[in-house]
User: Fold these one by one.
Assistant:
Number 1:
Amino acid sequence: MTTTRTTIALLGAGTMGQALLAGSLAGGLAPEDVWVSARRPEHVERIVDVHGVHGTTDNARAAEQADLVVLAAGPAQVLDIVAEISGHLREGAVVVSIADGIALADLEGRLPAHVGAARALPSITAQAGHGLTLLTPGASCTTAQIDAVTSLFARSGEVLRVEEEQHAVLGPLSSGGPAHLLYVADAMIEAAAVRGIPRDLGRRIVQQVMAGTAAWLEQSDEDAAVLRADVCAPGGAGIRRIATLDERAVRAALVAALTD
Ligand SMILES: NC(=O)c1ccc[n+]([C@@H]2O[C@H](COP(=O)([O-])OP(=O)(O)OC[C@H]3O[C@@H](n4cnc5c(N)ncnc54)[C@H](OP(=O)(O)O)[C@@H]3O)[C@@H](O)[C@H]2O)c1
């Protein structure tokens, strides 16, 4: 695959597919280089109208246009879709599955030998240009194919190469992570509302606090616990709030949720 322009087929355009599409287009991907397929024709039509990409309900038709095929339907559909498209893939194409829990070996075993396979786990925050994709290229991938897959996901955020066994452990932190932080954000906004603060003001404050804390953590070499001590002077209100969270086992509950 030596062309500089890569044609992408996105098979499945639900929550995650659309997040990737929006983030990638905002990151410079040309709509005319994208084919999208989904199950419902009216859904495809809406995506074509909104984004100016090519659309179809025929997975094989989308796949045969593409150098890079992203499988973005649910885990229960993905291997059936592979069976639909495998006879229609271009020589040297690469197929990347974002389906949680579908093993690379299952993908590779169903694809023709001339096609590369990779597994990726993106995050919904791709739609805001701050995604994080865990990427595991299969042994079947060439360097050019890995570069093409990396470039696609890098349009909407960061890409981290990981081992396939790490997906199950890292997924709850990365692709599941926004749900945990939004849970905390929602609770903070609600607590402010209990004390009479309008939710839009609470939300603005919490948003900036989350963005500022992420930037601070990124800038510093210190551990999160060390940074937290800077906001929690001994005997002060900050440390008492953390003590209340600990008394109610919030930290233990988070660790349990992420390790169950
Ligand atoms: N949501 C996340 O945060 C997240 C994070 C990481 C990975 N993932 C992975 O991303 C994949 C999609 O998740 P999602 O949350 O986006 O699911 P979703 O919202 O249910 O979307 C599924 C999409 O697949 C389409 N589809 C279903 N069967 C199809 C078929 N046979 N051919 C073509 N398209 C088909 C659906 O089309 P219609 O809309 O027309 O019905 C829909 O657009 C899953 O495998 C999941 O493990 C999700």
Number 2:
Amino acid sequence: MPFSFDVEESVVRHPASAKWSMFAEDVLPLWVADMDFPVAPPIVEALRRRLDLGLGYSPFEGEKTLVDALTARHGVAREGLMLLPGVVSGLYASVRTFASPGEEVMSHVPIYPPFMSAIRDTDRAPILVPLVEGANRYEIDFDAMQASVTPATRLLMLCNPHNPTGRTWTREELERVAEFALRHRLWVVSDELHADLTLDGGFVAFASLAAEVAARTVTLTGPCKAFNTAGLGIGAAVSSNAALIARMKKVAAGTGHPSALAQTMWHAAITEGEPWLRDVLNVLRARRDFLADLVRARLPEARFLAPQATYLAWLDLRALNLPTTAGAFLLERAKVALNDGPTFGPSYEGFARLNFATSEAVLAEAIERIVRAIRS
Ligand SMILES: Cc1ncc(COP(=O)(O)O)c(C=O)c1O
């Protein structure tokens, strides 16, 4: 493999890293969704070259090479694309655009926490529909969606692939979601930030299902999960329905633009990042399988449905009957920082999300610490 995916604690643990500086030195951090691997060399090279061009404003509508690459990739017109300082900005802007205060916004839970804060912080009403556990994967509960939708529901927020369960929704599942959205005349925002991190194939873009679905959908995308560049903040909202993007632009006016370096980074990721991405996916598949074997052998009480995408494992630790939330217990007693279940929705006290984009050594140490804390 030409690229290095080594993890040296002396390199990754520094004060500029939220992941490695949030907790005390004796804590192993497997929480926030950054990978512990170095940035792809072609991206680093492109950033170096960009610095020679100075750091004045880049074109206000986005650098042409990036805009062209993104519109081609998503098959949308220039007017159907809006660059964002990050994908979370797009979640907030879409909630503000497609529902008025007091109106309802539906999301599945568990869910990446800013889905819920985007609804609550803007005084919209959340309708949170729990996923259900199937034989070997989490599934959408269509009956529950039907039972909770009301005439005041305006927007459906979809996470595809899904954080934290790592589900890549199948075409059949997405078609049922689309049919539901059309039937209830909902707008859909589909956060597809993890699309390039599909480990087993099968990713289907929601807006690709049909023209009438695309016309009601805004897709959010960005490079930061697949290319490990979250510190450079950038994302985009795209839609075949340019009127939706025009509305979002008005709502998001004044909230800032992505930096010149972020635009260079994303363009390099699209045009030169493929070989690195292929390799990192191989590493992540191996880490997922390593973790699954380890959990099965050392922590059989934990339920762990292997993710089909992302580098996140949604651990169900309810069988351990821990005295506090799973995340709080493991932080205090095992000195391992995971994302605590309740941040992903109500009644997930016994769950925690583990980020496995690190070395086998770190994963093995984390699981041993957890086993020791539980057995002591
Ligand atoms: C589904 C999802 N959306 C958005 C984000 C954050 O995106 P950004 O950092 O571009 O705001 C994350 C980060 O993990 C995520 O998992």
Number 3:
Amino acid sequence: MSFDPSGVPVDPAASAALARKGLDYRLLDPADREAFEAWIEADHRGFHHARPRAAGIEHEVRVMSERRVHGVYDTTAADPAIPVATVSSWPTGLSVPGGRSVDGWAVSSVTVSPTHRRRGIARALMEGELANARNAGAAVAMLTVTEATIYGRYGYAPAASSATVEVDRGRSHWIGPEAPGRVHFVEPAGLREVAAAISRRAVARTPGEIDRWSGVLDRMLGLADPESDAARALRAVRYDDEHGQPQGFAVYRITREPNHPGWLEFDALAAATDDAERELWRFLLEVDFVTGVRGYLRSVDEPLPWLLEDRRAVAFRDVVDHLWIRIVDPVAALAARRYGAAGELVLEIDDPLGYAAGRYTLLAAADGRAHVHGPGGDDETTDAEAPRGRERSRRAASDDVSPRAASRATAPRGLRLGARELAAIYLGGVRPSALLRASRIAELSPGSAELADRMFASERTPHLSIWF
Ligand SMILES: CC(C)(COP(=O)(O)OP(=O)(O)OC[C@H]1O[C@@H](n2cnc3c(N)ncnc32)[C@H](O)[C@@H]1OP(=O)(O)O)[C@@H](O)C(=O)NCCC(=O)NCCS
């Protein structure tokens, strides 16, 4: 997706809030190399990372020049060139149920210098990013979080989780089917293009995954800084199907002491087919002289226990609320996904920041398509033709998912909920009935949460397998 980072105006409210604190809110110019390097220093310091080496800086500059990058500057600081706060953002697709994608706005690199903490800088940046998301035409803003207590106040909620999957190699006897294809070792650099194509297909079949940008693939394959110890330790494998077509890849490392079996660890296993997913797992589990296998940011719904004789060989550890989302345009967001059941549901949304506030009517047809009616009279219908991308169309109700065609057998039901709760249920990873039991939402009529459970259900558990 081509994106002009300066195409979205600088949010005047964020700028004014920071100016009142004596701080400059600046959009960085990708041509200003010096400013970018100072910004990268602040970002690494903010996340407690070591300073990057020269190759790492090159990589970061490349990645950041494709984003909208903001810095907050204190001209009275000892080194005024280094920002006291950072944030970056870019438009990207987010996979939603039904093999579809919604226009999203990814927010990353949120740091505030310890010298300037708790003065409302992060708040100004976060509110600015919601305005940017809306101005860029996104329906959903999203981020991955270091702590679960920071972003709820801006209307974000956890929508897709992930876990570390640990397998005891000695107990991992495989009982799954034989795959018709085969696994090959490949050089990470040679995998670059194929990895992008496979990732596109893997992302499309998993709600909660976001479109991969070229820098994240470089990071996965160790190409961001190929001479680093971490990159040189990586081994890459590719699964080709019975026709020789690449359908999956994994990148792993083995951590070990001399003369002792080690642990095989991986951050990336991407599969466009179930065969590829199974066979890559099998390959990783059958590498010899290994005590165990540890996969990071895996799905909490991994089929692996069903592929082994001893399901207790598999442990799901560190289950985390990995993807947090914030709905900034409910009509577009709700129309972008497919629904698990037909029905009519009213959503009365409370949103102190305004973006999602109002009364919405969601009409889902039996084929999963929806028509959404918003408070401003804006309507939107899921488009039947294009499965992904910018496929939605704002228009009056079409006949096939109009109120007439939606299940009339179901009496209108509804929920009263906040923007956070809407975000939590949006991808189908959190059941509305769980939020009802927690008293986080209310039913407009009995049975509404049960209907909402069925409508918002996703055919696949939402999952995000990268940090951003
Ligand atoms: C998290 C961080 C960005 C907060 O910056 P900040 O400028 O101090 O935050 P603000 O002063 O704008 O605080 C805004 C609100 O968030 C709250 N808050 C800030 N940091 C918080 C934290 N770590 N945990 C819980 N609440 C937090 C504040 O109490 C304040 O609440 P209120 O507005 O409801 O009263 C900063 O601590 C940081 O850089 N941390 C390290 C890097 C990091 O974790 N980044 C997040 C990446 S996902």
Number 4:
Amino acid sequence: MKIVMIAGSNRQGATSTLLLRYIGRLLQGHQISATCIELNELELPLYSPDNEELSPNVQYVLDIVKGADGLIFATPEYHGSISGVLKNALDYMNVSHISGKPVLSVSSAGGPVGVSSLTHLQSIMRNLHGVNSPEWISIGAGSQGFDAEGVPLDAGLRERVDAAVEKFLVLTRSLSVGVMSLR
Ligand SMILES: Cc1cc2nc3c(=O)[nH]c(=O)nc-3n(C[C@H](O)[C@H](O)[C@H](O)COP(=O)(O)O)c2cc1C
């Protein structure tokens, strides 16, 4: 099972990226290969429908997303929505990259929860024919601390992340076997 994760913050030390890295380690614990693309490091040019030639970084992202069995996207909550860099990356994608794939959405907000960005992300995934995982993960004020090993300090958050990842994996396994024809 191949999982691809995209960290949608353009900020060093972003809490959404730290959470995604932690999820990556949980997946490793399940012996699942997970690739994490951090958009802060892998710069993508601004999407334009006029550009027919894709940059090598864009092609890399599209190829790796296309080959994934499941996808996890993380975003900071910006003005009640997802970040510009994540939206830019998603604008390059179409149903051929996402259709039939389970998607787990993760956000970090300045307020207690970041439901708007999660709702927007799920809506984009629905438009690309992705299959939204039943749970999503939101961190916000009071749950954004990580220890030196990158483990969330909030025990309740760790439990919620475990449960959300577990459901995402059940969905990913089911879809890998059952509904390949959706892709
Ligand atoms: C441009 C901008 C817009 C933001 N808009 C919101 C918002 O609408 N709601 C909110 O709760 N926090 C908002 N914040 C705060 C961020 O969501 C918060 O700092 C979050 O932890 C950023 O995630 P990161 O640590 O992954 O970068 C905003 C921050 C910035 C820079």
